[in-house]
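Human: I wish I could look at a protein chain and see how it folds. This is the protein in question:
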Amino acid sequence: MRKLIFILFVTFLFACTSENKEVSSKSATEEVAMDGEITLTQEQIKLTEIETAKVKQIKISETVECTGKIDVPPKQKASISPIMGGFIQSLNYNVGDKVEKGSVLATLQHPDFINLQKEYLDARSKKEYFEQEYKRQGELTVENAASIKKMQKAKADFLSTEANYKSLKSHLKILGVNVETIENDDFTNEFKLIAPISGTISNLAANTGKFVNSENCIYEIINESKLNIQFNIFERDISKIRKNQKIIFHLINNETKFETSINRIGAKINSENRSTLVYGNFDNINRKLKPGMHINASILINEKFVYSIPASAIADGEDASYIFIRKGNSFKRVKINKGIEQDGYCELIEISDEIKSSEIVIKGSYYLMSAYELNE
């Protein structure tokens, strides 16, 4: 139908612009010269809105098309559980809130926490006692020739109590307790849940007053500024894939394009769909992308500089493709071999010097093609 419209338009155009109205139908035919060129008047060129440009070299490549999704790298995601069981006293952040590393996410209470502080003070006292006893036995061994066995026991008791003291001290620090306050006999009733990374709260699975233990994940934090882009590459295409190849991707329902490159390639094939995973990192500076989004992607392979023209310049015939070279008001049809088409441009394979140096019709090719077919 489109081809018929072109032919009717061209016939009408040439007929209307013929200087001799009595032979208008013939004038359209006679515009095709014997040397394979078609000549138009300035008025015809203007009416058909013909535009020209020279071929140019651009970087183009073959592509592997694939689908995938957005995820968060493991080190940019944190699941936070309490070190010990307790009853939640406060929740300081909700889903969607931004948090900084070291922020207090929640506070908890439990009698065992009070006992832990008591054990710490007992261990501290015992450590100090056995440290003095160890020193005393060492001095007696030198001055009074006391038994080495007593000194060895004092040493063992000291090292044992010191290890217990350090262990309890570390435990309390992990719980967010300032041990100096405890050493001043100022016990604290609450222990804290601390954010290990900066990011956004993506999940909250608790409420005030609920008892949680160390197996329960209360908060999940993700850092959306650093994302993982993962794609499924089918077995037939895996041999074409290399690290550092460019990836152009967009969301399923949005044509806005983003760019990254391959930094990891899966080591095995999924037996169900015969594919492997390929990964790329993406700096999500504007936070436009979210984990879990599905995407379409093109992996660029065999990038090279080629001679190309806009795809609109090419007129496809029944058995070949053509472009038109402009010489003044004359237009010469030339057969071409098409290569890769990408981003609105098409590669020209093995083109002549004439094509490289000439003005090529990039708009109006189908009107000229219709004129040729009208006169064949």
In short: The CA atoms of residues 300 and 366 lie 31 Å apart.
